[in-house]
Amino acid sequence: MDDRTAPLPDPASIWDDRAAADYDTPGEGMFSAEVLDPTVDRLVELAEGGEVLELAVGTGRVAIPLADRGIAVTGIELSEAMVARLREKAGPDQLPVLLGDMTTTRAPGEFSLVYLVFNTISNLLTQAEQVECFRNAARHLRPGGRFLIELGLPELRSLTPGKRATVGHVEDGYVLFDTYDVLRQHVVSHHVRFAADPADGHEAALFRSAHRYIWPAELDLMAQLAGLELESRHADFAGTAFTGESPSHVSVYRLPSTP
């Protein structure tokens, strides 16, 4: 069977207990201070003292340090395993979480900021679902409120004719490579972990996650369909200018204060 017609990994099922445990890397990787500090600083700035909602809150990587800064944070999360992991670190009084899908689940109240980080909107595998995510975010915003998305860009310029995969990261004991279906805008990330020293064994563990990548212009149109306007776009949370060479972006959309 051609991989391009093979069933994709189900986003609702891959985030099990093992994946949730592997996701947490305290002090390292996405949990390092150099990554989290500018992220939280920017979210505090955009919240302007109001309540905040994180879609796909996961294990609380961003939401917990944000709550520690005095921001009232609510989360929505599809994976029970991820929420269980979060609950080992923060109780429901500090960080309430609704179990459900980020396209339809409604949290009570209005928020000054809704945010979706670390490429998570790409876990929705159709354009229609991604549009509904924007609409759900807009439903939660007070007038003048903002919706922030952090999203990587596909490495399509690395794909020569006939080539369907790119290598994203290589280190001792770990390789990440991505396979592309450019017709459906799908990419499957393959995370392969193995013993760094062959003397320690030859077995490898594979974790696969499916995504639908979105170009910035397409993302902006989704925002318009939800009644949102692009306010800013940078290459990262530190405010680096976004250019044609940027591998990712942080885009902020705003709900107009008046209809």
Automatic annotation (TrEMBL):
The keyword Transferase belongs to this UniProt entry's keyword annotation: yes
InterPro entries: Methyltransf_25, SAM-dependent_MTases_sf
UniProt cross-references to Pfam families, sorted A to Z: Methyltransf_25 (PF13649)
Keywords linked to the UniProt accession: Methyltransferase, Transferase, Ubiquinone
Record GO terms (molecular function): methyltransferase activity
GO BP terms, alphabetized: methylation
TM segment ranges: none
Keyword Methyltransferase listed: yes
CDD domains reported for this sequence: AdoMet_MTases
Ranges where the Methyltransferase domain occurs: 52-145
PANTHER family, alphabetized: 2-METHOXY-6-POLYPRENYL-1,4-BENZOQUINOL METHYLASE, MITOCHONDRIAL (PTHR43591:SF24), METHYLTRANSFERASE (PTHR43591)
Protein name from the UniProt record: Ubiquinone/menaquinone biosynthesis C-methylase UbiE
